[in-house]
């Protein structure tokens, strides 16, 4: 196991200070509203960014607000801001709803079971859980080649039995293995598979196999009420832009299906901090956590990895504005956590993510 992370300088991390020094100013510019005539909302209300290499974290700073808006005015297309005294500033230790970064933890938990001999990635999942979709393997699920559609409105169903039945009844739109289609259903089925094979719920598998051994004390599903002052708010979730009418979501999971499942789901539900995700990244880099052919991870994606893409880089993004990029070529990593859906989901894009990743790429060139 690698030594624990420590806050250090760019020279100590072997990173170019000039390039790293541009990340925060460029990110801060994304907090400004778009020019007149365009969308009135900035890219995000606030963000935390962390960049490091090996055991040294060279950058860990916060910008903007963890809680800025009371609600969203759909008619005006603007957020209704809280009085200045009631806003909560973003801090380096702010906790974020990770959204689809949860998928990485579910994938690692699955690979741990592969290493333990409990699962074969190329055996049909029906061999482990009869009644599930035939012809699909764990590898199909973790590479999004199952052929299943992107999502299913499980939140409209009355209970866990009905949700499980609906998931099991889904049929691929294309033959498994034929094409890639990113789908939350893949990780929900992975959760079903893991829980049936191990006899333990997903939150226990993640805690016992990943977060507790690594000392990731700020990472968990369904955070307790005592964490609320530390958590970044997400969306004023109402129809027609949302799928449920919940008001401002703060302290509970944003994803509607994960919310319906009690906050514990294979595709979404984890909350964490930038520092804990850096611990997770270094554990993947040094082999403390297992990787199997990159299963469950996005690889070499320029749209959010910028100039880090193209050299075996892997990571993921989350709908709430989260992202993690890990570069094995240099042992460096970038965590960018932003509440881009606060106060409402919008066409935010990933330019700030890609720009920050490109700065890290230039700061730690492949030798």
Count of distinct structural domains: 2
Report how far the terminal alpha carbons are from each other.
24 Å
Sketch the topology as an H/E string, one letter per element.
EHHHEEEEEEHHHHHEEEHEHEHEEEH
Secondary-structure class: alpha+beta
Report the principal-axis shape.
Answer: globular
**Overall pLDDT, averaged?**
95
Which CATH first-tier class of the largest domain would you pick?
Alpha Beta
The CATH architecture of the largest domain is 3-Layer(aba) Sandwich
As residue ranges, the low-confidence spans are none
DSSP strand count: 15
Helicity range: 25-40%
- Rg, please? 20 Å
| Biggest pleated sheet | 8 strands, mixed
Number of helices: 12
CATH topology description of the largest domain = Beta-lactamase
Q: Which band does the percent of strand residues land in?
A: 15-25%
Word description of this protein:
By secondary structure, this protein is an alpha+beta fold. The chain folds into 2 domains: 6-101 and 218-363, 3-Layer(aba) Sandwich (Beta-lactamase), CATH 3.40.710; 104-204, no CATH class. Helix content is 29%, strand content 17%. It is built from 12 helices and 15 strands. The protein has helices at 10-13, 17-20, 23-29, 102-115, 138-142, 160-169, 184-198, 202-214, 256-260, 274-285, 302-305, 351-363, and strands at residues 6-7, 46-53, 56-67, 69-73, 78-81, 88-89, 96-97, 220-221, 236-237, 247-248, 270-272, 298-299, 314-318, 322-327, 332-338.
């Amino acid at each position: 196991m690698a030594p624990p992370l420590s806050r250090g300088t760019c020279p100590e991390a072997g990173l170019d200070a000039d390039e790293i020094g541009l990340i925060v100013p460029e990110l801060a510019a994304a907090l400004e509203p778009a020019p007149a005539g365009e969308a009135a909302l900035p890219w995000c209300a606030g963000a935390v960014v962390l960049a490091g290499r090996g055991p040294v974290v060279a950058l860990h700073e916060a910008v903007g607000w963890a809680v800025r808006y009371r609600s969203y005015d759909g008619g005006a297309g603007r957020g209704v801001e809280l009085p200045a005294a009631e806003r909560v500033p973003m801090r380096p230790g702010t906790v974020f709803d990770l959204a689809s970064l949860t998928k990485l933890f579910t994938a690692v938990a699955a690979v741990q079971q592969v290493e333990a001999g409990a699962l074969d990635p190329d055996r049909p999942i029906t061999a482990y859980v009869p009644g599930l979709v035939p012809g699909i393997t764990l590898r199909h699920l973790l590479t999004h080649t199952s052929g299943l559609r992107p999502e299913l409105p499980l939140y409209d169903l009355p209970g866990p039995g009905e949700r499980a039945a609906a998931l099991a009844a889904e049929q691929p739109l294309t033959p498994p293995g034929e094409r890639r289609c990113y789908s939350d259903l893949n990780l929900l089925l992975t959760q079903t598979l893991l829980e049936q094979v191990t006899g333990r719920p997903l939150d226990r598998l993640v805690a016992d196999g990943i977060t507790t051994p690594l000392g990731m004390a700020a990472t968990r599903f369904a955070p307790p009420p005592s964490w609320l002052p530390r958590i970044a708010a997400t969306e004023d979730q109402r129809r027609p832009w949302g799928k449920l009418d919940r008001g401002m979501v703060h302290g509970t999971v944003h994803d509607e299906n994960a919310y319906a499942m009690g906050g514990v789901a294979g595709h979404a539900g984890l909350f964490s901090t930038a520092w804990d995700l850096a611990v997770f990244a270094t554990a993947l880099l040094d082999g403390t956590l297992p990787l199997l052919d990159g299963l469950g991870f996005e690889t070499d994606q320029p749209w959010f990895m910028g100039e880090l893409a193209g050299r075996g880089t892997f990571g993921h993004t989350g709908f709430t504005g989260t992202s993690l990029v890990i570069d094995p070529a240099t042992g460096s990593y970038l965590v960018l956590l932003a509440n881009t859906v606060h106060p409402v989901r919008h066409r935010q894009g990933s330019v700030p993510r890609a720009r920050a990743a490109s700065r890290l790429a230039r700061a730690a060139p492949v030798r």
